[in-house]
Specification:
Length: 432
C-alpha cells in the first residue's frame, strides 16, 4: 500500500509540474503588457507566484498591468454558459464586447402578414440562425431569416388550437411554445420543420403564462400569469408538471429571466413582489417591492453587470433593477414616462452593453445604460398602437421584434461594434 501510494504521489506530482509548465508558457505568450514598474518585475519569483495563484483560482483580472487574455466564455457550450460557476467567464466576454463601443443606429422593417393582435408570440432564436414566432392570433409559425431579410409562415396543424405567448429554445434544439390560452404546448423542430404537441396543464384557462425561461438543468419554467401554478416543461422526455403559485390573482408575473446565480426571476405584473424560482430544488419564494399597480413590468433582461432589468409597461414609469446576488431592488426613471395603454413590451441586451426596450404603445425605443444607471430615448417615427412584441437579438447583431397589430417586423440595428459568440447568444441569458 505504501509503495502504491508513493507511486501515485510521484505520478500526480509529475502531472502537476507539467500543467504548471504549460500554464506558465500560456501566461507569458498570452499576456499583453499595459504598464509595469519595479515591484512588478515579471522575472521575479513573487510575480510568478501571484500569477500562478490567480490563474489557479480563475481570476483573469490584470496583474501589475499585465492583462491575461482569456476567452473561456466562448469555449463553453450553451448549457455550461448557464451554470452559475461560469458566470465570471461569461461576464468577461460580455464586457469585452461592450468595450468595443457603438456606431450609429438604424431602423428597418421586414414585410409580414398574419392576423390577430398579437399575430405571433415573442420571437425565439433557433440554432439555424432564424427567428420564430409561435402562433397567437395567427394559425401559423412566423419565420424571420435575418440573412435574407425575408419572412414566411409555417402552417400549424388545425388540431393544435389556442394562442401562445412565446417560444423557448431547449437544449435539444427544438422550440417549445408557452401556452397563453391554449391547451397545447407546440414542439417545433426548426431543422425539419416538424410540429408536435404535448398537453398543457390547466385546461381551458386563459392568460396562463406570458413567457418561459430555460434553466441550467435543461428544464423550462414559466412564471404564472393567471394560472395557479408555475409551468415546468422537461424537453428530455416531453413531459410537464406544475409548481404551486405562492399567491393567487390575475397577471401575477409577466415572464422573467435567468440570473447569474442560477435562479429564475419573474417580473411583477399585478403582484407587488418578484417571483424567485430555484430550479435546483424547485423551491419558490418572493421578494417584496415598493411599487404597486397592475401590469407594472413586461419581462426581465440581464445586463452585463449581472443585474436584471424590468421593462416598464403600464402602471409605473420606472425600469426595475434587481441585483440577484444581494436581492437589492432599485429603479431607473424611464425617459418619456409610460402610457396608460402600454409603453414597452420586452427588451434585449445588445453587444454594445445597452438594453433596448421594444416600443408597444406610441413610444420610441427605450435605451438603458447599465453602467450609468440612466435611460434615454431613440426617437423614430413609430406610428400605431400595440406595435411589436419583445426584441430578440440575432447573429448579425440586430434586434428583431415580431408584429402585434402592425404588419411588419421591426429590425433595429443598435450599431454594436462587438458581437456575441453562439454559446452566449443562444443561451437563456439572452434567448429567453
Amino acid at each position: 500500500m505504501i509503495t502504491i501510494t508513493k507511486i501515485l504521489i510521484s505520478y500526480l506530482s509529475r502531472i502537476f509540474i507539467k500543467i504548471f509548465t504549460i500554464t506558465l508558457l500560456f501566461a507569458f505568450y498570452n499576456c499583453k503588457k499595459v504598464d509595469s514598474f519595479n515591484v512588478c518585475d515579471p522575472t521575479s519569483e513573487e510575480f510568478l507566484r501571484t500569477l500562478f495563484f490567480k490563474l489557479g483560482i480563475g481570476d483573469n483580472t490584470s496583474h501589475c498591468g499585465y492583462a491575461i487574455n482569456q476567452d473561456k466564455g466562448c469555449k463553453l457550450n450553451r448549457k455550461e454558459v448557464m451554470q452559475p460557476e461560469n458566470w465570471k467567464f461569461v461576464q468577461a466576454e460580455l464586457t469585452k464586447q461592450a468595450s468595443l463601443g457603438s456606431r450609429a443606429t438604424s431602423v428597418s422593417t421586414i414585410s409580414t402578414s398574419g392576423v390577430g393582435n398579437p399575430k405571433w408570440g415573442a420571437l425565439s432564436l433557433a440554432l439555424n440562425g432564424k427567428l420564430y414566432g409561435m402562433p397567437s392570433g395567427s394559425s401559423t409559425i412566423l419565420e424571420i431569416d435575418p440573412n435574407s431579410g425575408t419572412s414566411r409562415e409555417i402552417p400549424v396543424p388545425g388540431s393544435i388550437t389556442g394562442t401562445h405567448a412565446s417560444g423557448v429554445l431547449a437544449l435539444n434544439g427544438k422550440i417549445y411554445s408557452i401556452p397563453f390560452n391554449s391547451d397545447f404546448i407546440i414542439v417545433f423542430d426548426p431543422l425539419t420543420e416538424s410540429i408536435e404537441s404535448i398537453a398543457s396543464p390547466f385546461l381551458s384557462e386563459d392568460k396562463k403564462w406570458f413567457g418561459g425561461i430555460l434553466a441550467p438543468n435543461g428544464k423550462i419554467y414559466a412564471p404564472p400569469g393567471d394560472a395557479s401554478g408555475i409551468l415546468v416543461i422537461d424537453p428530455s422526455n416531453n413531459t410537464t408538471y406544475t409548481i404551486a403559485s405562492p399567491t393567487t390573482g390575475t397577471f401575477k408575473w409577466i415572464s422573467g429571466s435567468l440570473a447569474p446565480n442560477g435562479k429564475i426571476y419573474g417580473a411583477p405584473g399585478s403582484q407587488d413582489s418578484i417571483l424567485m424560482i430555484d430550479p435546483s430544488n424547485d423551491v419558490v419564494s418572493t421578494l417584496a417591492i415598493t411599487k404597486t399597480g397592475i401590469l407594472k413590468w413586461s419581462g426581465l433582461n440581464l445586463g452585463i453587470d449581472g443585474k436584471l432589468y424590468g421593462t416598464p409597461l403600464i402602471s409605473n414609469s420606472d425600469v426595475l433593477v434587481l441585483d440577484p446576488f444581494t436581492n437589492n431592488v432599485n429603479y431607473i426613471t424611464a425617459a418619456g414616462g409610460t402610457s396608460a395603454s402600454g409603453a414597452w413590451f420586452g427588451a434585449s441586451l445588445a453587444p454594445n452593453g445597452f438594453i433596448y426596450h421594444t416600443p408597444y404603445y406610441n413610444q420610441p425605443i427605450l435605451q438603458i445604460d447599465t453602467s450609468s444607471q440612466s435611460s434615454s430615448l431613440i426617437n423614430q417615427p413609430f406610428a400605431g398602437n400595440d406595435k411589436w412584441t419583445a426584441f430578440r437579438l440575432a447573429r448579425n447583431g440586430r434586434l428583431y421584434a415580431g408584429p402585434a397589430s402592425l404588419v411588419d417586423t421591426l429590425v433595429f440595428d443598435p450599431g454594436s461594434n462587438g458581437a456575441f459568440c453562439d454559446s452566449i447568444l443562444f443561451s437563456s441569458y439572452l434567448n429567453n
